[in-house]
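Re: 2-oxoglutaric acid structure - here you go.
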Amino acid sequence: MSRYTLDHAERTHIAELAEKLLVNHQPWRPLEAVEALRAEAEELPVGLRRFMATARLDEDAVITVANLPVSADLVPTPISWQAAAEATAGAVDEVTLLLCASLLGDPFSWANQQGGRLVHDVIPSKGMEDSLTSASSETQLTLHTEDVFHSCRGDWVALMCLRNPDNVGTTISGIPAGVLPAENVELLRQDRFRFYPDDSHIASLDGVTPSLALTDRPYEQAGVLFGPAEDLYLRIDPDFTTAVPGDTEAEQALRACEEALAGATSSVVINPGEAVFIDNYRLIHGREVFTPRYDGTDRWLKRTSMVRDIRRSYVHERSRSRVLG
Ligand SMILES: O=C(O)CCC(=O)C(=O)O
Ligand SMILES: [Fe+2]
């Protein structure tokens, strides 16, 4: 975990920079501005840039930037991501998040998630309380790798908080050292697991929970664990990961892995003005349950995902696009 708290002057500087860039990029369309914002990120305070450069090289699992400016005239929390998109709510905060995110990686989106938007709104929505998407509230959002189904999933998931009045925690876990037996680790590295798209990638635009059965969805077959032996990378979302049907050994190893991860769970409360960048290779994340208010004061996060190099997805997509799929 590493943390950088902006001082008053740095915070004011970022607020002014984000306001100026928003004016220069009207109408605000993040996908059209994102490349220009990478260059503008060189205007961010040098202390922040040095911090992010070091955290990136060290592969810090959770990187927090605190005391970021949040819109002075922040509107009430919209009722859904669709309403937020319609109103371009929190646009200046999207600029701030994209500037900071650009210091680590290249933000991208998915054509079929939140309508292809580069910056998502994480907001509790009526009717979605028990869904398996970020619009849920009353049901725990299970610990997951973001976009587990895809080999071009992000290296980081970035969450910037605009409101969190009830201090709802974001849950986090990773593979604890020495807990999984070596033979399990070897098995979990093998291509004996299937990764399916989650409901946010299937949901229709009106947000209705999809009925498409897991096994009717396209999947990638790969290992759950990969990468450096001393500091394993992982890929898992219990709701959307299975062993290859009939492979009971793989099934058991998957369960053991899930139990190890559940046992290593901690929680962080992301406060307004904090942006948290979670290493999507080293950690999984989720969210505690909470009771939505639906009165404009609800928890509200801005979210984006970044890859370390967008060219990885250009190769996959055969197209120079920030929107995948
Ligand atoms: O709301 C949170 O804290 C995390 C939600 C989540 O998993 C996500 O937005 O990717
Ligand atoms: Fe997530």
